[in-house]
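From: lab user (bench 3)
To: helpdesk
Subject: output format question, protein + S-adenosylmethionine

Hello, I'm new to running complex predictions and I'm not sure whether the block I got back is the full result or only part of it. Here's what I submitted:
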Amino acid sequence: MDTKSLQSLLSDPSHYAKAFKVFCARSDKLRVFSDWVDGVFSEAVVGKLQATLDGQEELRVLGVGSGSGEQDCVMLEQLKKRFSLVNNRVVEPSDKMLVQYKALAQYKTHELQGVECDFRQQTLEQYQKAGDATKFHFISAVHCMYYLDDYDSSLEYLYNCLIPGGAILVILKSENNGWNRFLDRFPELRRGGCEITSADIRNSLDRRGIPYTQYHQPNGLDVTKCFDETADEDSLLVDFLTHSVNFKETAPEDVQRSMMEYLASSDCSKRENNTILLNIDWDAVVIIKQ
Ligand SMILES: C[S@@+](CC[C@H](N)C(=O)[O-])C[C@H]1O[C@@H](n2cnc3c(N)ncnc32)[C@H](O)[C@@H]1O
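Helpdesk reply: Thanks, we reran it on our side. This is the complete output you should expect:
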């Protein structure tokens, strides 16, 4: 299959940001996550954090690959219900995403009262190399493990950055995820480590004897319009799903046809009325350090 002409989405951060935005909107990502935070997160993370802070001490939080911060802010608001002072360090390499995160934090000044943000425009690898010795009460890595140079050693590093009694939350695709099946069928579309799933994280933790709990979250993405030649915005969604720049314009027609057919197949998606819903289930792996 000739896919040499396809440019990786990871090589164009600005196109990535646009495509990711469409993906988030179509998957109702924030609403699903907010409900999850109100339920599972408040009990399994906030309720389990063994942090006894005196009135002056801040809860130290590290967000890795936080993007434009929507999910982080939802978690911070939940943490704030129990901890009045929070120091929120953010390690995110994209300046564009950080600009949006800063604007959101500004907009949410009232909800985030008592939260001090410390933005670092860095990859996790650069942050680790810089050798900061701060230990954290809570670390989150939401859908970013795919992009790290070596998720396995990064996970060990993050575990070492945690104080005893602290918690790590890693969210990534489930192994039954239809989008992952799609990438398994077309390995030429794999960019970075986008095929990594929660199973890889569990294996990594099992190997080290680190206990964890996993929470499964069903989620569907309406991809119906991706099959409509005239829907412009959905070509950005196709770009995100294929992790390619301008897939519809640059991929050979036969390649497009077989890829899109497989995306709509029951291996990856289900049909509800006239809608094609791609399975984008995710798992949250919660580690509480003993
Ligand atoms: C799919 S987005 C997830 C953003 C956000 N956590 C969310 O779920 O909406 C992946 C994020 O990981 C960031 N990223 C990529 N490589 C990274 C690295 N080496 N270290 C830290 N973050 C990275 C990207 O810039 C991007 O913001």
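A quick orientation on your result: The pocket of S-adenosylmethionine is lined by residues 20, 64-67, 71, 91-94, 97, 123-125, 142-144, 147-148 (CB under 6 Å). Let us know if anything else is unclear.
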